[in-house]
Amino acid sequence: MTAVRSALPRRIPYSGIWIDNYSLTAVRGGALLAGGTEWHPDGIGSTSRTAGGAAFWDASTETWHSLSALPSPRHDHAAVTLADGRALLIGGRSHQILEMNSTLLWEPGTQDFREGPPLIEARARPVAVTLPDGSVLVLGSEYDDDLERGTRAELLRPGATAWEPAGQTARIFHTGPVCVSGSQVVIAGGRDNGAGFAIVEGVHYAPPLSQTTELWEHERRLWRTSGPLTESRDDAQGITLSDGRILVVGGWDQGRVLPTSEVWDPATGSWSPAGTLASARSSFALTALPGGRAAVSGGLVEGPFAATAAVEIWEPQQRTWSLGKPLAVPRAGHRLVAVDAETFLVVGNHTPSPDAPPETSWELWRPGT
After folding, report:
1. Region (Disordered) spans which residues (predicted)?
2. Residues 100, 125: Cα–Cα separation, whole Å
3. Tens-digit pLDDT profile for residues 148-202
4. Cα-flanking dihedrals φ and ψ of residue 291, to 5°?
5. Beta-carbon contacts of residue 356 (< 8 Å; ≥ 6 apart)
6. What is the pLDDT of residues 205-218, one digit of tens each?
7. What's the confidence (pLDDT) of residue 205?
8. How far apart are CA 184 and CA 34, in angstroms?
9. What is the CB neighbour count within 10 angstroms for residue 44?
10. What is the helix (H) or strand (E) element at residue 313, kind and residue range?
C-alpha cells in the first residue's frame, strides 16, 4: 500500500453512472456499502432505480468485492455496526415502497444478507445509533403522515428477535443531529410540529426550527428537554468526539448557510460556541478524529455552491478551525468511515470534467499526512 496509490479516486463496483442514498458502514477488516439509488443512461439523460447491490471494501488489499444482492433493495435507509461484527440495515424505501419496516442483517463470515427483525414502525430516512451496551436505537421518518411516527423511538437489544418501544420525544418532530454520549442519546435541535413544507407565491413555509435539546435516558426509556443550542440550525451535522462531547456544525437558517459550530458538554448539559469555519458550506461530511479533534470535508461552498475538496480541522483546546489536507477531488454528500486511527475511507460522487456526469469513486484520506 502506498500513499500515492491510495490518494487516487477510483470507481466503486456498481452498474450505474453514479449512486447516492446508499449506506457506508465500517466493519471488521474494511467497510460495507449497501443499497442506494443507481442512475443509469436512458438515451436522453439518466433515470434512477433502487439498487439491490452491495460491496465489501477489503482494507488489507484496498480492493472492492461485489456481494450477493440484497434480499430487498432499498435506499434512504440507516445502517449500523453491531457489537458482534454484523451490520444492520434499517428501514428505507424503494421505488415501489414509500416506507419500509424491514431490516437486513449482514453476516461477516458468509458476507451474505438475511432478513432481520422488522421495525414496529415503517420508516424512510430513519436515524439509528448504537449504544454502549450494543443496543440499537432508531427514530425519525421522512413520511410522518400520522405526525408522531418519527417521534416514537424503538430499541433492539443485543440478541433480541424483536424491537421494543423506547419512548416518545418531548417535542422534536423532525430531528436534528442524533448522537450518543455515554449512556445518553442527544438530539440537537430540529423542527417542531407544523403544517409541513410548502412554497406559496415564492415564499417558503416550513415547521418552525427549534433550538431544543432532547436527551434519552437509557434506564427509564424517557426523553426530556435540556439546554438549547446557541443557534437555530436546519440540516446541521453532528458527531460525538473521542472525549464524549458532541460537536454540531453548519446548517441553514432562513436561507443562509451557517459557518458556525457549537459543542455540548455532558458534564454541564449545555452548548457553547466552538468556532467558525473559514468557508460556509453545506452537504459536507463531519468526522471525529483522534484526540478530540474533528474534520469538515468537502461540501458545496456558499456563493457558487460548487463542490470543494477543502478540509478544515477543529482543535478542541483552542476551539478554532484551520485548513487541513484536502480530499483528492471536490465532493459533496460523501461519506467517510475510519479504517484505522489515521486513515479514512471516502466514498462519494465527483465530476471528472465539466461536461461529464458525476461518478461515484473512493479514496483514502489521512489527516496527518
Report:
1. 349-369
2. 10
3. 888 999 999 999 999 999 999 988 888 999 999 998 999 999 988 765 666 667 6
4. 75, 20
5. none
6. 677 899 999 999 88
7. 67
8. 28
9. 6
10. strand 311-315
